[in-house]
Write a structure and sequence with these properties.
Among the domains are: about 120 residues, no CATH class; about 100 residues. It starts with a helix and ends with a strand. It is globular and about 80 Å long. Helix content is about 60%, strand content about 5%. A five-stranded mixed beta sheet has the order 4-3-5-8-7. A hairpin with a 2-residue loop joins β1 and β2. By secondary structure, it is mainly alpha-helical.
Length: about 575
């Protein structure tokens, strides 16, 4: 009876999650990364030219731009950011959205709806895999934890790459494991195509290559008597060939009208100072070879990501500002933003796993790996991805480890299924109800979600900002607040992808933090800028981090969506 109804329950869970995503995002302004992503995607489909935003693969941006083809859109190919600048995405995005006679609200909403299809596919994949591995009850639990995660909902609504990356890892690893368990030409082709699609979603999916190699090496070690390492190596090579065979036509479309001389000059600009010069020079040489141009553009994006990850970024974290990463950043932010009921499940599952490991010798561990290839691969991926993120030099937001969430939830579901029924259902009933209450209570401010340990979303700004809390999503809500309170003029220091001039009109005045003559009347400041301006500079950071320290003497009248602080000064 339950099995026959599990699909209907799964559909209901996804429908509720999608409804929460749609109705919560309709009043969100365009976020920081959406401005270049949306405009770049539209340029790809209409111009067949990938000069904008090459540091991200095109597939998600293409999907977001598809609905725009059915709207009346003005594309200004004469603007300097398109015609002259190298990767002028940060200037072209605002021009395309707010200065070209287009409707940014209609553009953003339709693009976001298209990208939500990725969220639905992610939910379907995790339910399917959980159901195949552990049965319908566990499949529904893994789906429930994924679909109603406030952090996943937050990013499922935006034209960004993180939920797409989660889907890419999940699908690619699913078909890889399917091929390992049931080798066949069909499963090999599926694994190759899934790998190729993954490379078109986000460059972090290059981590699939070392993951595959590691898993095959361990399987050979624990199953060497029946494991053909030469055949496995050949199969892995075939997966890579099929995958990168798919990358070529997609990128070929995106450089079709990209003038070769422009592609080469842009690539030279980006890679002349690349730390590993042979790699940069190789990609530059590929740009004027017709058959290699698509791969040159793909590799340009990949190297740009490596360069940025190594170069770091300016980040606020728990009262400090630095341009290099904190090793404790991701574990801390995860502990503050993952819902407490999910953290409880993780602690229970880890405790049970440690108890079993303490009673297991190394020989039995090898037997467990050989019998549980999927679980071993999930754990390996989580360790690899978290290890790469923690040791990297980029601390932008929890979203960067979001691709590991579905695998964590699958492992939880598999372990919880082993509980005795008398324990499982009462405990899970309380935890699931708790998670529902958390997810509904934070509506519509999913990006600003923080758990009870952090003091809720109202205290999140004390710990971290940027895409953990403030990505510019509340500008439209600020404009409504200004209108409702009949404010004639408001000085604003804004962080995000929206346009203050567009939404506030002549009521807007740009706030300069250092201008003492502006310290009166109505002020509004994005949390990212506010916290970065009243923090402690660390690790050789030599820029001003106290430009808003004077505001410590004042309390904000209100916070718009937890991300914009509003003051009224005499």
């Amino acid at each position: 009876m339950f099995q026959s109804k599990s699909n209907l329950i799964a559909i209901a869970i996804v429908a509720v999650a999608v409804a929460l995503a749609i109705f919560s995002v309709k009043d969100d302004s365009i976020t920081t990364d959406e401005s270049p992503h949306i405009s770049a995607g539209y340029s790809y489909l209409t111009q067949k030219d990938m000069r904008l935003n090459p540091e991200h693969p095109p597939l998600i941006k293409d999907l977001a731009a598809l609905p725009l083809l059915f709207q009346k859109i003005n594309f200004d190919a004469e603007h300097s950011s398109w015609k002259k600048e190298v990767n002028g995405q940060w200037a072209f995005g605002p021009h395309f959205l707010y200065e070209s006679g287009n409707n940014p609200n209609a553009i953003a909403f339709s693009a976001r709806l298209a990208v939500m299809l990725i969220f639905i596919l992610l939910c379907w994949f995790i339910y399917r895999w959980g159901k195949e591995k552990y049965g319908p009850w566990a499949g529904l639990l893994a789906l429930f934890l994924t679909a109603l995660s406030p952090n996943i909902i937050a990013h499922a609504r935006y034209v960004t790459t993180d939920v797409g990356a989660a889907l890419g890892f999940l699908a690619a690893i699913y078909f890889f494991i399917k091929f390992i368990n049931r080798p066949s030409k069909k499963n090999l082709i599926y694994a190759g195509l899934a790998f190729g699609l993954a490379q078109l979603l986000k460059f972090s999916l290059i981590l699939l290559v070392p993951l595959y190699i590691f898993v095959l090496a361990v399987l050979y070690f624990v199953k060497h008597q029946v494991f053909d390492i030469k055949r496995s190596a050949a199969s892995l090579l075939a997966i890579l060939i099929i995958g990168y065979g798919l990358v070529w036509p997609v990128y070929q479309f995106h450089v079709w009208n990209y003038p070769p001389e422009r592609q080469k000059s842009d690539t030279v600009f980006h890679l002349t100072n690349y730390p590993f010069k042979p790699a940069g020079q190789l990609v530059i040489k590929m740009t004027d070879k017709p058959l290699l141009r698509p791969y040159a553009q793909y590799l340009l994006g990949l190297l740009m990501v490596f360069q940025r990850t190594g170069g770091g970024n300016t980040t606020y974290f728990m009262g400090e500002v630095a341009s290099v990463a904190w090793k404790g950043y991701f574990p801390t932010v995860y502990a503050l933003k993952e819902p407490v009921p999910v953290l409880i499940l993780i602690i229970i599952v880890l405790a049970g796993a440690l108890i079993r490991i303490s009673k297991t010798n190394i020989r039995n561990l090898g037997f467990w790996i050989s019998q549980n290839t999927a679980e071993f691969t999930w754990l390996s991926f989580i360790v690899l991805y978290w290890g790469t993120s923690i040791t990297g030099n980029l601390n932008i937001g929890l979203r960067h480890v979001l691709p590991t969430f579905p695998f964590i939830y699958l492992l939880i579901a598999g372990q919880i299924k082993k509980w005795a029924r008398i324990i499982r259902f009462p405990v899970m009933g309380v935890i699931m109800l708790w998670l529902i209450m958390e997810t509904v209570a934070v509506f519509p401010n999913y990006l600003a979600y923080f758990n009870e340990a952090a003091g809720g979303p109202g205290n999140g700004y004390k710990y971290v900002t940027d895409s953990n809390l403030d990505w510019g999503q509340d500008l439209k809500r600020l404009a409504r607040y200004v209108e409702e309170n009949k404010i004639d003029k408001i000085k604003l220091d804004y962080f995000g992808g929206g346009s203050p001039q567009y939404y506030l009109g002549d009521k807007y005045e740009k706030l300069d933090a250092g201008n003492v003559n502006q310290r009166h009347g109505w002020l509004a400041i994005s949390a990212t800028l506010l916290q970065g301006g009243r923090a402690v500079a660390v690790r050789g950071f030599d820029k001003n981090t106290i430009y808003y320290k004077w505001l410590d003497n004042y309390e904000p009248i209100t916070k718009i969506g937890y991300s914009i602080f509003v003051y009224k000064l005499d």
